[in-house]
């Protein structure tokens, strides 16, 4: 069994890294196979997730590491069709928000801890600093990734929806979020459409992202290797294949490429995070 999984892992590693894939010789288990086969699913077929499955997925999320045991994560389960449609509109018309079996909005949540501190006569000055907001966002991300992996282990597909931040004030209003909470992203979970061609997407080679002791700039050939592999992937998916032009530049060239997120500091401030 381990040998079979090791072979599967090697195939997955090749899809991630191409010819430079590390060897999986003798290494293999179902957890690694699950993690390495991850792909974003943007098309779902009708189907439900049971309340029992959802409860276990959220339990997996709550089992993630949490800074100082502060439990900064909250999650809104959006099952009202009208609210789903509204969030889909705010996220640029993403149909997957309406089609997913479950749509979750993950919140960085200081509200409980601030209430406890104030109720017990303590001040909250430290919560006004950037690190406090950052700590809560990190907690949310660890929890949400656990939930995603748990959902995939049950046979579902997932996609994160950062586009909720395009119209962050309207999302806050739609979800009736209190002060000291902030919506970080959505997570769509559902049954993958078998006709969806999505596959394991290439990543930068480890020579680019792994550093020993001190940071080292990547070699040009290693960056070129990634660009060749990711452009081939998009071409095979019948999508625009120039990753630098159509994705990187399209996201960072101008403030307008942020699609409304350039004002996100104001939304943090309005929610009670001064970010000093």
Can you characterise this structure?
Helix 3 (51-62) packs across helix 7 (130-153) and helix 4 (81-90) packs antiparallel against helix 8 (168-175). The N and C termini lie far apart (54 Å). The mean pLDDT is 94. The protein is 46% helix and 12% strand. Strands 1, 2, 3, 4 and 5 form a five-stranded antiparallel sheet that branches. It has helices at 2-17, 30-36, 51-62, 81-90, 96-99, 111-119, 130-153, 168-175, 206-209, 220-236, 243-252, 264-270, and strands at 44-45, 73-78, 102-109, 157-161, 181-192. The protein is α+β, with helices and mostly antiparallel strands and 276 residues long. It is globular. The longest helix has 24 residues, at 130-153. The protein has twelve helices and five strands.
What is the topological layout?
Blueprint: H1 2-17, H2 30-36, E1 44-45, H3 51-62, E2 73-78, H4 81-90, H5 96-99, E3 102-109, H6 111-119, H7 130-153, E4 157-161, H8 168-175, E5 181-192, H9 206-209, H10 220-236, H11 243-252, H12 264-270
Antiparallel strand pairs: 1-5, 2-3, 3-5, 4-5
Helix pairs in contact: 1-2, 3-7, 4-8
Task: Please report the total strand number as a whole number.
Answer: 5
Spatial separation of the terminal alpha carbons: 54 Å
Low-confidence stretches: none
Spell the H/E element sequence.
HHEHEHHEHHEHEHHHH
Short description, anyone?
With 276 residues, this protein is α+β, with helices and mostly antiparallel strands.
């Amino acid at each position: 069994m381990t040998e079979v999984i090791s072979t599967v892992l090697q195939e997955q590693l090749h899809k991630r890294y191409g010819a430079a894939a590390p060897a999986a010789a003798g290494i293999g288990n179902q957890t690694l196979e699950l993690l390495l086969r991850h792909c974003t699913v943007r098309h779902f077929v009708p189907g439900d997730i049971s309340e029992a499955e959802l409860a276990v997925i959220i339990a997996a999320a709550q089992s993630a590491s949490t800074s100082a045991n502060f439990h900064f994560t909250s999650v809104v389960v959006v099952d009202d069709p009208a609210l789903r449609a509204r969030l889909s509109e705010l996220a640029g018309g993403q149909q997957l928000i309406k089609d997913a079996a479950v749509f979750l909005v993950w919140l960085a949540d200081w509200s409980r801890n601030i209430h406890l501190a104030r109720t017990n006569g303590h001040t909250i000055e430290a919560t006004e600093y950037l690190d406090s907001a950052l700590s809560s966002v990190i907690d949310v991300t660890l929890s949400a990734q656990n939930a995603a992996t748990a959902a995939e282990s049950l046979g579902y597909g997932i996609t994160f929806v950062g586009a909720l931040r395009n119209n962050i004030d309207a999302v806050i209003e739609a979800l009736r979020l209190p002060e000291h909470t902030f919506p970080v992203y959505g997570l769509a979970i559902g049954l993958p459409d078998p006709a969806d061609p999505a596959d394991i997407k290439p990543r930068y080679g480890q020579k680019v992202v792994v550093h020993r002791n001190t940071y080292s700039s990547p070699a040009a050939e290693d960056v070129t290797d990634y660009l060749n592999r990711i452009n081939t992937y998009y071409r095979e998916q019948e999508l625009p294949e120039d990753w630098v032009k159509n994705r990187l530049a399209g996201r960072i060239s101008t403030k307008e490429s942020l699609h409304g997120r350039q004002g996100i500091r104001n939304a943090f401030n309005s929610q009670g995070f001064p970010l000093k």
